[in-house]
Design a protein that fits this description.
The chain contains ten helices and five strands, in the order ααβαααβααβαβαβα. Strand 4, helix 9 and strand 5 form a beta-alpha-beta unit.
């Protein structure tokens, strides 16, 4: 795990020295995410309010190019062209490699139907129940670490054989106790916690992109 990933964490800590204490957990979270993607699995991301916005932000960095161009490999480009001689070359030149990730804060038709018909606090849990598979990872973002709908989702993830990565503030919480890895940034006030969450997940996205797309075409 050293070599290509350590410089990203070194850069993060040089810009945010207070995150030095999170180094080991950031590297451990990267390890779980890297194993997930190497196995062909996916990431589910959940959070409320500002953390929901962070969930969408993370998905945006993983599902398309972040810093690298993420060109498709030759075999896939050829398959696209063979599928349609007119449309395929456009797709081959324009599509980018993706690391599959789904933010669970969207899907308003599903979530409002579930909230109306069933139990509002289980909206995220229902989606983990439907999307989640063994080997997937749930990234659970909660500044307090005690948001009930996030905890319900994490419980379902554990039951389905998924790994859980928590991203919280510095206090011990139910999520930090439940997660396989929990990155607890050293702040206690919500907006200050969120200010440190962004550089942490950017660092994770940079490391994952480097691991899977730093070469000729997709790995």
């Amino acid at each position: 795990m050293s070599g290509t990933v350590d410089p990203y964490v070194d850069s993060l800590v040089s810009r945010y020295p207070e995150l030095e204490g999170c180094r080991a957990d950031i590297l451990a979270a990267f390890g779980l995410l890297s194993d997930c993607y190497s196995a062909g699995a996916k990431l589910l991301v959940v959070g409320n309010g500002g953390s929901a916005a962070d969930a969408e932000h993370i998905v945006g960095e993983l599902m398309k190019g972040f810093r690298l161009p993420r060109k498709l490999d030759a075999a896939y480009r050829r398959a696209l062209t063979e599928a349609d001689s007119e449309l395929g070359p456009i797709l081959a030149d324009s599509l980018q490699g993706a690391l599959p990730a789904i933010a669970l804060d969207g899907h308003p038709a599903l979530t409002t139907a579930y909230m109306n018909d069933c139990e509002p606090l289980l909206c995220f849990a229902q989606q983990v129940n439907g999307y989640g598979k063994p080997g997937d990872v749930l990234l659970a973002i909660s500044t307090s670490g005690n948001s009930k709908n996030v905890l319900f989702a994490a419980t379902v993830a554990r039951a389905k054989g998924m790994k859980v990565v928590g991203l919280t503030g510095e206090k011990n919480s139910r999520l930090s106790a439940m997660a396989d890895v929990c990155i607890r940034v050293p702040r206690t006030e919500t907006y200050l916690i969120q200010e440190l969450h962004l550089p942490v997940y950017h660092c994770l996205c940079l490391m994952l992109e480097d691991a899977f797309f730093n070469g000729e075409g997709n790995k």
